[in-house]
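User: Show me a protein chain along with its predicted structure.
Assistant: Here is one chain, sequence first, then structure tokens.
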Amino acid sequence: EDPTDEDLRFTSSWGAGLMRLNLQPHQVIGLSVAEYLADNNEHHPVVTAHHRALLGESLAVENDWEGKTIRTHVSPQRVGQQIVGTIGVAFDVTTARQVEQEFDTARKIQEALLPKYAPVLPGFDLAGVCHPAAATGGDYFDFLTMADGSLGIVVADVSSHGFASALIMVATRRLLRTSAENQTDIGAILTAANRAIAEDTPLGRFVTLLFARID
């Protein structure tokens, strides 16, 4: 936590070495935000945030710093109704951003596994869409061309949501697709899939599933 005065010079500092490890907190006191952050750069996003805080705004900005992603929350520092400076708190969110990127990649992969178009079948109107509650999830649907040419329709829900459920969803989808290519007996397909999923899924995880065949 780094309070400043009205000239945006640090008046105290806790853990300010987060972004510049060669400085101790006491060495930061007296520096302006611009001097500390980027060689007196008044256009640095964090400096801009502190200036806006002097006008009464509270906001958060992110910037790259020596290979890290830093998120800084800045608020006005008031005595009564008067703004006398700012308070900034910085967090290293590099790992969190990497995790978000990995989840975003997983979401895109999962979306790519869902049918892009519904099959055309005379006498039927078919459509499907899936919107996960989180970045990834265990809900899915599928249209399967079965061994005898009939159409299989699957609607499934893996318990919970998130990355683990998405993995189970992918495994379930592949099991059903592979089985449907070789046989048409839904009971036999689901029996085999159930056995395989039960063997590979942790206790407490399960799949609720509807499999219909339109001949």
